[in-house]
Design goal:
Elements: H1 2-23, H2 30-49, H3 53-74
Helix pairs in contact: 1-3, 2-3
C-alpha cells in the first residue's frame, strides 16, 4: 500500500526532528512525553492490525524516542542537594 510508505516517511521525519531534543539539556514536559509515547504506541498497534508493517516499525521508533525523552526528563540532575537552614 502506498499509504504505508507515505506515513512511514512522515514518521521518520518526526524521529529526525526529535533528535535535537534527545541530546539537549532542556526536555519537554513529562505529560507531553508520556501522552505522545502511549498514543504513538497505540497507533503502531493499529497499523500492525492493518498489515502496515513498515509504518508499524517507524511508528514504534517515534514512540521509543518519546519514551526516551520521558525517561530523560525524570532523571535528576547531578547537582548535590543542599538544604538551606535559613529561617
Amino acid at each position: 500500500m502506498w499509504q504505508d510508505y507515505a506515513i512511514s516517511i512522515i514518521q521518520i521525519a518526526l524521529s529526525v526532528a526529535l533528535v535535537p531534543a534527545l541530546f539537549s539539556e532542556a526536555k519537554p514536559d513529562r505529560l507531553t512525553c508520556f501522552l505522545n509515547a502511549v498514543l504513538l504506541s497505540a497507533l503502531a498497534g493499529v497499523m500492525a492490525t492493518l498489515g502496515m508493517w513498515f509504518t508499524t516499525a517507524t511508528g514504534s521508533l517515534v514512540a521509543v524516542c518519546w519514551y526516551t525523552l520521558l525517561i530523560q526528563s525524570r532523571v535528576p540532575d547531578d547537582r548535590p542537594f543542599t538544604a538551606s537552614m535559613d529561617c
